[in-house]
Amino acid sequence: MINIRKLEVELWESADLLRAGSKLTSNQYCMPVLGLIFLRYAYSRYKKVETEILKDRPSRGGRVMPVEASDFAAKSALFLPKEAQYDYLLNLPEDIKAAEIKNKDGHVMNSLGEVVNNAMLLIEEQSQQLVGVLPKTYTEFSDELLSELLRIFNNSALDEIGGDIIGRIYEYFLNKFAKNIASDDGVFFTPKSLVKMIVNIIEPTSGVLLDPACGSGGMFVQSGDFVNQTGMNANNAMTFYGQEKVEYNAQLCLMNMAVHGLTGVIKSGDEANTFYHDAHNLDGKCDYVMANPPFNVDKVKAESCESAKRLPFGMPSVNNKKEVGNGNYLWISYFHSYLNEHGRAGFVMASSATDSQGKDKDIREKLVNTCDVDVMISVGNNFFYTKSLPCSLWFFDKAKNDDIKDKVLFIDARNYYTVVDRTLNEWSDWQLKNMNAIVWLYRGEIDKYAHLLNEYQAELGSDKPFDEQIHDLSKQLKELRKEAKKEVENALRNTKKKIQAEYDEKIAELERCLIVANEANWLYEKFGEGQYEDVLGLCKIATIEEIKDKGYSLTPGAYVGVAPTEDDGINFEERMAEIHRELLSLQAESNDLMETISKNMKEMGL
């Protein structure tokens, strides 16, 4: 598994070291560097898709037919002319002027900066939505600096990370480079697992998709992948619209979509401030709405919001300055208003919004009584890349089936996640599927649940009960570790590393299988062959009447309750006494060590 944080740090440290030696400011440096990351990622996807195209490529006279731009469009990927391909730029001769390389207009280029600018122009010719978007200020870089940056970003790890990698590295660089650009409160990158969860539950298939706070375009990228995986072409099936107030983010969104072969209409700047503008005139026309809007925004002009409409449940609280003090329920109202009669919405929201009072509660009551609230999920801390706050995922569906029309599924997932590191959690792909399975059962889609159980069995290569597989795998793992230790200890010195590496690989594969088996068992223990049950501490289906009885709270924890704590069989008093003895022992060792250090320093005359 790629350590993306390590990759980010390495890329940043190298790139910033070069910036420090140049005359460029952070703002001048930021977008061109991200443009190079765009080129590298675009090339990675280009080569991957090219391999797929060439697999079944017809030939004439013994020669394979050359690939064309239309082949890439059919695979939802960006075609790159030779002079815009990363390896071409990477392997140019040192003396550009002497090489007499011509640009797209036939003029000889004199610097590497001109060649990279030309590459950007060639790509813009391949994608109408990129015209005027890609950075073309590379002549401000010396050839030496630009050549070194191209080398730095030629990192194979970028080939192995899916999803919104551009948005992820973009945010990291932006926070390092130009904090003033990313200073809007509540604006931050949406982690991949939250985006995936939203897309999986919304299930976009065809129609109009709007993200009115689209940032770097992660919702579009993931939706495109979802549609393509069903066998359809996302560009043919979907129409993507986005609004993004920050120009930088909108540029990144267009670049990100282009890399993934997606086309869309993205508006930015003041006219794209969703609080005041329905920039695409989509009120009541969207099949899908997805967003991670800025949380808890204050000082929103109330009169401008009212004139912009899209407030079917009325205005939130307005202060004596005629400002909305918290914009959360503006967003919630807008998302509902954008939907057509069968539309679905999924969005990230501050946890506090599920139970806020005053005018917010009045709006929430009206919203609940529409019967359009579908699923509510509580998410724990540390899911966001730069923030540690918890959040909730909200889902609306204006065309719920009759069985669940007056019901809402609540899921409390605050204790269900995978730890990435000390400050970051996420849902693994299997955990995403498990959460999705709960929604399927709520919707009566038992066939999808059954398919997931089959997928688990295929992945594990066994149809044994999952708990038995956990037992078997744990035993195998224990024996393999014991065997590895013995073999490495007895190995010759020059073969120890090789033998350890071989065992590490085998152990990692067993550990991966054990994780899969545990996730399969987690799901099967709760829902068996596909019968939905309320699970204490995890999920509950509540009626509108039950929600009314709880003061129209939409906080999952208020409904699912608390799971019973399993007795681990350890005597608390005995364990505390044991810990106390361990601490005393460690303290004594520490004192002895300090005395020894002090004595040695005296002997050294220090």
Structure explained in plain terms:
The chain is of the alpha/beta class and 606 residues long. It folds into three domains: 4-161, Ferritin, CATH 1.20.1260.30; 192-416, 3-Layer(aba) Sandwich (Rossmann fold); 455-537. It is built from 22 helices and 15 strands. It has helices at residues 4-20, 26-55, 69-74, 86-90, 96-99, 112-126, 143-152, 165-177, 192-202, 218-229, 234-237, 247-259, 302-308, 328-338, 359-369, 429-442, 446-460, 466-490, 496-527, 544-549, 557-560, 572-603, and strands at residues 59-60, 63-64, 207-211, 238-244, 264-268, 286-291, 300-301, 323-324, 339-350, 373-379, 391-397, 407-412, 418-421, 424-426, 539-543. The strands form four sheets. The protein has a nine-stranded mixed β-sheet with strand order 5-4-3-6-9-11-10-12-15. A two-stranded antiparallel ribbon has the order 1-2. Helix 12 links the parallel strand 4 and strand 5. Helix 2 packs antiparallel against helix 8 (165-177).
